[in-house]
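Folding Problem: From Residues to Backbone Shape
Fields: amino acid sequence; protein backbone structure tokens
RECORD BEGINS BELOW THIS LINE
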Amino acid sequence: MRVLAFARYGPQAASTRQRLLQYIPHLSGAGIEVDYHWLLPDDYVQSLVRGEPYPRWRIAGHYARRMRQLFRPDYYDVMWVYSDLFPYFPAFLERFFSSRQRPIVYDLDDAFFHQYDDSASPLVRGFLGGKFASLLDRASACCCGNGYLREYAARYCSNSVVIPTVVDTAVYKPLVQKPGKGPVVIGWIGSPTTWPNVRPLLPLLQHLCAEQDVCVRVVGAGPAAERDRFPGLELVEWNEATEVAEVQRMDIGIMPLFDGPFERGKSGYKLIQYMACGLPVVASPVGVNREIVIESENGFLATDEPEWRDALTRLISDPAMRFRLGSVGRSIAEAKFSVASQAPRLVEILKLAAMGDLAPSAHATAASAQGIR
């Protein structure tokens, strides 16, 4: 069985690594060969991190290359698409270029549809509003990072199933023994685009650093975070080779999040990274965070500054609590958010799609029969 896969970004993007690349060995073991391509390469991702413009002529070239890839004569059983084939292009173009292909399985781990349907630009809403509805209507299946995304996708593709964003828990794992001395490390990992979610919390974090033996370690916020520096705030450049080690150096993992439509579609990847490394977590009760964080068992949910202060202060002052909650989080990560736990479900979906058992507009009859929901 052969799958033609399309990612939006190169392998430095978390979405490409977590939603596609880490599954390839498991798919290969199940007899599924994956030929994958990304639209925008790593130098585009790096330009976003640095806040630098990317040449439009190069973007046009990448789009043209994708069009050529879609007309390749090779035989494939399934096309597997992360987000959409041509971001910010109308649905009819994507439908035209994919019309010669085999069944399509879409993958969503963010609420990309809100960028089109709810855009502040009337032009974007006019030309792109309803794009995902049009695409999903002809999809054989849609893999969704959480229930919020599935609720949307299932309106148009009844064979929609939740496959959470996961990590390899053989790689993401707790340190055998952490250093016994030094400040308690409150950690955050992310990207320049998600860093604004942390800014409202910075006064509290600064105060904690000033009054207690605490430091705040931030990974991947980019150059824009330089203006947010304060004593105790450490800014670390993201690097794939050191990503796991940076999370392991933390004592508490945080995920503050605005409560907006796009944020409600987030898949809680930060929390899963923290938990897999045995960290207790504190998060905003937004979207799937409410499901991942079990209050007082693997962490705390905090809505306002007093709740954040209370949760962080409790964890800072109680190493035994940090260990206990982190151990529960690790168990949850292994059971529900590991690549080993979800790979068999993805294999099943792709194989059912290839066999034609997940036909578009089938109203989930095949999916229900096979129990993939």
About this structure: Residues 362-373 have pLDDT under 50 and may be disordered.
